[in-house]
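User: Fold this, then the next.

Assistant: Folding the first:
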Amino acid sequence: MSLGQAISTCFRKYATFSGRARRSEFWWFFLFVYVVGLILVWVDGLLGLQVGASTQEVMINDTAVPLVSSGFGVLSSIFGLATLIPGIAVFVRRVHDSNKSGWLALLSYVLILACGIGLILQLILGLLKSTPGDNKYGPETA
């Protein structure tokens, strides 16, 4: 599956959590979201589209140390919200492709919020080999 096909498929199956997704579909979509997100963070900074940006001074050992918060970018946040559901959906379908329960995807997100170790679980689940032929989550995708 090519980059364009992966993006098209993920947006067409915006909130489809059933079925299967090959590794190429998952990783191409992940690359798309990551690269476009980085570009939009840069554009937000270039155009000054940050909300909640502030500069404060913190006293450490009688020395004023500037503490800068860049806030969050408007364009990158809109893009992040627009790709959140299809990103979770393609991840669940990716887990299904290796004949594992989609609830493992939820577990990985909970572990990310709790302690960050969920990123390792997501990496492992994203790299698992596909189940050849049909499995309990559907037929093998092309």
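Now the next one, as you asked:
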Amino acid sequence: MPKITFFEHDGTRHDVEAVAGQSLMRAAVDNGVPGIDADCGGECACATCHVYVDPAWFDKTGARSDMEQSMLSFAAVTQDNSRLSCQIVVDDALDGLVVRLPDGQH
């Protein structure tokens, strides 16, 4: 199982094991990571699962779809490495992935 590290905006670390094939959002929700609200249930219809992907991992998470890009416009503070965690599918290549949650999302 790939291991993913989530950092809350205050630096609190959450190490979780994710099931390959599930979304990063689902891994966060299933492991009680605060700040990943997933109000739309992973349908790419909100921005409550916004994360900053560590730059070393960004290219490995795939490209943003047009819909994801549109939804990110609703996120409070986006960066070049912003993603919606519901749109990142976990696989073995993401073992060790590090993501951070924006301030205000807790």
